[in-house]
Q: What sequence folds into this?
């Protein structure tokens, strides 16, 4: 009987080799090496996970770390969404994956994980990328790369990553693809979309089917962002009338570098008038940990307020640093395979301090990609004072877009989830009661927002 089965199998292979090859191509040996069997302390799940490295520059030894959480059901029919956190220099694993939209949360001791009810992989395949090299587990063998990173190379490396990753995961070629992110990813996301759009135009057979992007509390335009930020501080009673007038008098935000008088006025506002608050959600409690808390120390570089991140539990990034520095966690993630000489951290101060090139405004890219017909959404948590809703509205208003659906409240259950206006080529939405990390502060509202974005519809009016 056994020999007969072997004969039949041999005949089948000789007659139908394409079928077998096609089926095997769904999960290749290379993908299996990246498969996460289970993470330490992880509750049981039915969806597949993959993580590992993609080398984006052989000569300088730059490699980016990714973590893919496939959709909870019918993953083969769901779009692929790339999530990027900003900084610049902050980890999408620390924030997006572990505090916001990922499937797991980390407990306070860093010993186990629990499920996120509103994980975005309920409706899409979500990939988190630690970018650029030097962030999180992503690394470079050329130490000078840590001091000469900038917008341009970050976008170029991310494009190389996507092209190479698609060759490793060919089942995602031609799949509907979206880019998402927040904060300084307000640069990363449109810049990568722009690179990808140009790449697809030049390619005779584009494999990455870019459909659009969605960004939250996004750094957009140096001038309008900064004017809108100072206006938010004043309108939310964080600074005095006198300080507001002084900043607006002394600060010319059209300049690349602020004056000494401007810096003095800004520092006075933050150090003497703000008080001990979480600037990424002005109504949230601050972390009482004795450990230095980077959440409450935003920095000014040139004229741009470079944001970090915050969350409802203001100490949660401490839990991430405990968890991702565990050797068993790194082994399960196929991370730190080269033995990086420093600890995994939520953000890289070296990258932040030494960021070299930054585009002054994203508005020209928006205009080009709107004209190209991409689906573009911008959302804003309304309790963030670092990249506040007023900053985003000031910036977007200068696109001078035609209004398709006038301003209205959208709903999450029986409550107003926020407000929205639909323009010709772009949708803007606020998320009520959310800080800088919208999916952490308002997970249900953020999930509805994301689900609606993917559907191509407008946010619910009731």
A:
């Amino acid at each position: 009987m056994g020999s007969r089965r072997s004969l039949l199998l041999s005949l089948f292979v000789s007659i139908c080799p394409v079928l077998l090859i096609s089926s095997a191509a769904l999960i290749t040996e290379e993908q299996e090496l990246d498969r996460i069997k289970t993470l330490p302390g992880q509750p049981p799940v039915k969806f597949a996970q993959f993580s590992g490295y993609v080398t984006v520059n052989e000569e300088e030894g730059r490699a980016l770390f990714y973590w893919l959480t496939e959709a909870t059901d019918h993953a083969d029919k769901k779009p692929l969404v790339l999530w990027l956190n900003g900084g610049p220099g902050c980890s999408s694993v620390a924030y997006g994956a572990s505090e916001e939209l990922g499937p797991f949360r980390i407990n306070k001791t860093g010993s186990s994980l629990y499920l996120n009810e509103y994980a975005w992989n309920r409706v899409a395949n979500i990939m988190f990328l630690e970018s650029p090299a030097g962030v999180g587990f992503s690394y470079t063998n050329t130490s000078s790369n840590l001091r000469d990173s900038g917008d341009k190379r970050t976008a170029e490396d991310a494009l190389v990553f996507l092209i190479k990753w698609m060759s490793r995961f060919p089942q995602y070629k031609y799949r509907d693809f979206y880019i998402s992110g927040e904060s300084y990813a307000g640069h990363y996301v449109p810049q990568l979309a722009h690179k990808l759009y140009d790449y697809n135009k030049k390619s005779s057979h584009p494999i990455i089917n870019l459909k659009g992007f969605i960004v939250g509390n996004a750094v957009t335009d140096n001038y309008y962002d900064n004017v809108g930020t100072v206006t938010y501080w004043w309108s939310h009673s964080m600074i005095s009338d006198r300080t507001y007038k002084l900043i607006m008098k002394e600060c010319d935000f059209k300049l690349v570098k602020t004056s000494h008088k401007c810096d003095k006025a800004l520092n006075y506002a933050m150090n003497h008038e703000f008080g001990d608050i979480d600037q990424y959600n002005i109504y949230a409690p601050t972390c009482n940990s004795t450990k230095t808390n980077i959440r409450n120390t935003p920095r000014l570089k040139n004229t741009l307020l470079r944001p970090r991140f915050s969350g409802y539990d203001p100490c949660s990034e401490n839990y991430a640093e405990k968890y991702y520095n565990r050797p068993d966690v790194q082994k399960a993630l196929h991370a730190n395979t080269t033995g990086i000489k420093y600890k995994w951290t939520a953000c890289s101060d070296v990258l932040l301090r030494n960021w070299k090139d930054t585009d002054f405004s994203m508005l020209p890219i928006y205009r080009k990609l709107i004209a190209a017909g991409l689906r573009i959404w911008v959302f804003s948590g309304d309790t963030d004072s670092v990249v506040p809703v007023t900053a985003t509205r000031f910036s977007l208003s200068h696109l001078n877009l035609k209004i398709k659906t006038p301003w209205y409240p959208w709903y999450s259950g029986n409550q107003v989830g926020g407000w929205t206006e639909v323009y010709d080529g772009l949708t803007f939405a606020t998320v009520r009661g959310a800080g800088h990390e919208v999916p952490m502060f308002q997970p249900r509202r953020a999930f509805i927002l994301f689900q609606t974005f993917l559907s191509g519809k407008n946010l619910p009016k009731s």
